[in-house]
Amino acid sequence: MKVGIFGGSFNPPHNGHVNSLTTVQKKMGFDLVHIIPNSQNPLKIPMDGPSGDHRLEMARLAFSTYGDAFRVNDIELKRGGKSYTIDTVKELLKEYKSKELFLIIGADNFETFSDWKDYKELLELVNIVVTTRPGYQIPEGEDEWPDYLTPLVAESDFGTLELTTGRSVEFITLDDLDISSSELRKKLRVGRPAEKFLPLAVESYIKQNGLYKSGSQKISNFKNFTEFCAQTLFDKKAIAVKAFDIQSVSSSSDYTLIASGTSTRHASSMAENLVRAVKDEFNVYPLSVEGVDEGRWVVVDYGALIVHLFYDFVRQEYRLEDLWKNGTELKLQDKTAAAAASAAPKA
């Protein structure tokens, strides 16, 4: 028996998921593919969105017409907390043998697989199927393999790597819809057409349950919210914090906030701290967070407020402030610094 495993947030499940997995199932000859919505990706910042129960039901609807070849599995949602693939694989090994299990991942995850918890043990327990897009150069030689994989390759044939662990890595090129889940969520939140990206049953479920309505409904005053976010950045030693009311010049958001960090790590740290502070104060997660891994330009999207956090040298290259010069700059004050200054002894 050959069994595929594919995990993800399925937020929401879209035609790209369906087309990719049905193609992989046929090409690999899988008897069964486990579709596993996660509880929380340990490598990503939490984001606003439907509950696990909603994501589970949408995944079931997305694959409901494909018979017994696909099984939507709630193993990670039941376990709760951060979803580690190693834990899921060990659970599935109670039912299947190692040689029968194939973990399906994208090329981006293949490149960074060493960031996964206990990745070496995973490469002993399961085979890997890497899905790639047209134009992706399948690694053929040692100089093209990721560093973490090189010591484990016993034999290489075009499209397949045999590992010293007894497992294999296979590459499958897909020609499917290029869909960004974050862009799809944005379309849904602002009411833009998304029918061609979603299975009909999933689209109907989203409408019936009022999903993907912006969490910003919990925020009554976005000017005050922008000032709160600015103060949070001031408290993390952000550089050149500026905010603009851009309602007259932008249809995508009402306010924008920009700040710099002294390093890429500083920029990423500011984003992570901002997400925590907003969650604590407003019980709202961002709609999306982009660029936090690199830290050169991090974008935190709260719907009516977009926050841009730069490594300072990168900010100087893009000069985003020029885009908003026809908006109204808010007068920001670092209240923490002002309070400290007023409390300081007078000379």
Automatic annotation (TrEMBL):
Classification via CDD domains: NMNAT
Nucleotidyltransferase found in the keyword field: yes
Subcellular localization(s) per the UniProt record: Cytoplasm
Catalytic activity: nicotinate beta-D-ribonucleotide + ATP + H(+) = deamido-NAD(+) + diphosphate
EC numbers: 2.7.7.18
Location, primary (coarse class): cytoplasm
Enzyme class: transferase
Keyword vocabulary terms for this entry: ATP-binding, Cytoplasm, NAD, Nucleotide-binding, Nucleotidyltransferase, Pyridine nucleotide biosynthesis, Repressor, Transferase, Translation regulation
Protein name: Multifunctional fusion protein
Biological processes, Gene Ontology terms: cytosolic ribosome assembly; NAD+ biosynthetic process; negative regulation of ribosome biogenesis; negative regulation of translation
MF-aspect GO terms: ATP binding; nicotinate-nucleotide adenylyltransferase activity
Record PANTHER family: NICOTINATE-NUCLEOTIDE ADENYLYLTRANSFERASE-RELATED (PTHR39321), PHOSPHOPANTETHEINE ADENYLYLTRANSFERASE (PTHR39321:SF3)
Pfam families to which the protein is assigned, alphabetical: CTP_transf_like, RsfS
Domain Cytidyltransferase-like: 5-186
A GO CC annotation given for this chain: cytoplasm
Family: Belongs to the NadD family. Belongs to the Iojap/RsfS family.
Pathway note: Cofactor biosynthesis; NAD(+) biosynthesis; deamido-NAD(+) from nicotinate D-ribonucleotide: step 1/1
Self-association and partners: Interacts with ribosomal protein uL14 (rplN).
